[in-house]
UniProtKB/TrEMBL annotation:
This is Nickel ABC transporter substrate-binding protein. The gene is nikA. Keywords: Signal, Transport. Pfam families: SBP_bac_5 (PF00496). The keyword Lyase does not apply.
Amino acid sequence: MKRMKLALLLSIILTFLSACSTENSSKEEVNSSGDHLKELTFLSNFPSETLDPHLNWTPLRAGMVETLVKMTEDLKLEPWLAEEWKSEDNGQTWIFKIRDDITFQNGNKLDGEAVKASLERNIQVSEAMKASLKIKSIRSEGQMVVIKTEQPLPQFPSELVHPNTAIIDVSESKIEQSPVGTGPFKVVSYEANSKLVLDKYQGYWDGKVQLDRATLTFNEDANARTLALQAGDADIVYRPAIESLETLATEQSNVITVVPSLRTHLLMYNMSNETLKDINVRKAFDALINRNEVVESIMAGQATVANGPFLPEFPFTPNYEVKSFGIDLAKKHLEAAGYEIKDGKALKDGKQLSLQLFTYSYRPELPLIAQLIQSNAKQIGINIEIQIVENIDEYLSQNSDWGLATYSLNTAPRGDASYFLNSAYMVGGALNPGHLKHDKLIEKINELNKTVDEGERNLIAKDAITIIDQERLHSFIVYPNNFAAYKNKVQNWNLSKSEFYVLTKDTGVK
């Protein structure tokens, strides 16, 4: 009898605990409106050491923050936090009117003073943005912000498309861990280079936010990203393994999307290296790179051959001279530089031509391109040592021992040539770790920076790019496609050409 009572009591306890568990589970599965939570997991190869929007692109990609100006998929500027702007002196003084119906995710109002404070912090913490924006002074009054630049900058509004110009509430602490912006999603938790959890911001200004929660995770291994999609551990996977795309497409639950990117894979030269100052040496390396082989063998067809920094459809892309490539041509350029190929070695003054080539695994095709260059260089007696580093930008900017680097760059993130030209070819530019200094090119870029008329700007940009091409200041290899795979339950998600806008208010799930 006692055993029966004990069994009955145990049964009642278990039933009660089960009910509590079920109740808690159901609470976790519904939102404040009583509907099932709409959430998804996005897995990418974007590492995030910080969430400071002025130093990292992740906050904009994740929909946490927004910029004054936005770029459409057809590369046109449109208002975002600023509803309009104008300049009355050919681009040195800019007046922006800030929307009047926006609050930060802490409830504070977005006004001119908040924008001013954010931009001032931006140029204080980021040397790259300070160099790009060239802000001399900022003043605000109500919803108006007046920015005066150090020189006329006709393209200034397009500079404000850059993710690092995102507007945040600088009165908040812990910006590196949980910045407060105006976007549709706010931070719940963050683990550097690992995981970011976001909840929707209920007071978002630009309409209903479809997702209740989003989780962003990171893995640099493309195969691991592919497996995560197949196992159901991720709903959207950015850049799964290239070779897996056909297999993923055969599974009915998957959707594959591919768009041309604004990115270019290229070979950088360190002009601090005396050897690489010789144009014939640069031409030799340029001739060693079989672009078609890279497209077909390394990129599995998910790229096109690059003739220069920009896609051919841009109005500032010039007509390039037809080039030839191959080992024999590379050998001729090397001999023109004074090298003698003897006993399998390229010798000059009795020394073999040897260089260190740096790359990074964040984009797995880049080490493969490095290996191709190394293999082809060996055929004409050049010794190449490949070094893989974790943070390529930091290494190249802080060290001088490198000679070459395979690199991937979004060359036209705002649909204009001046960003790349200023960053990569002006002294002190954020993308000029090789200390390039070409006086004629600098003169052209300065002329571009002062020109207002779009047609004239395109002609000047073409002249500048032609100089880059003729001098082989970089070797442009391929334009990679942007691709992703996602589950068919995901709704209203588009792959952005610019790679700026990943999660938006419209992203949802069935």
